[in-house]
Amino acid sequence: MARMGGRRHLKTYAAPKFWPVRERVGVFTVKPSPGPHPASRSIPLLIVVRDILGYAKTAREARKLIGRGYFKVDGRVRRDYKYPVGLMDVLEVTETEEYYRVIPYPTKFMILHPITKEEAYFKLGRIENKSTVSGGHIQLHLHDGRNILIKVSDPMKPVEAEPYRTLGTLKISLPGQEILDYAPLEKESLAIIVGGRNVGRVGRIIDVHKAMGRKRSIVTLEDKNGDKIQTSLSYVFVIAKPGEDPWISLPEGAWK
Question: 0.90 exceeded by the pTM?
């Protein structure tokens, strides 16, 4: 894939392969705005509305619909047609009360999976890093750019933040961002692969081999058929605690 940085415009041939724009006639396509997801792992809202959901035939029509506030991402109206929609985001079509979650899918990399209204009130966020902020409180940095503050009573013993570890997953409410649950990255946790050649496959974690850095660390999972899957630690996204069913709905046959 060609570089997407440094220019306001993006040529169609340089767009990520999972964008459904390759068959369209035209030199240029929409370039995502800077936002919660990198351009190479997101889809501009205009392309979602026009090419995936089919609510518009042209970019002009899609921009009008978006500008009128008919689409919400993670519970908030988004009027920027370049807004990047990415992994685990919840998309709502306000007029039709349709709800979708962006999840990884084999060969297609990412799809919009239909979900219920009840499931649209939460999303999953992988903890990418942690930091200490003013007052000794702990801030959790999630994969979609969110920062969740964990207030501690004693900065010398931040027991309130101890359960939350890097690469674990938070289940948070939308749009309030309250923590509803937490699933650690450990043996028997259920996870979905978000990159590489095994993207979209789901399995229980049976082994984590640590090496120098996330990319070189290898995680072994076991899928519903008992087959073993190995992938980089950086591609593993936990979606349930050990012994639990997936917190999110998945395409038919993905797990059970």
Answer: yes
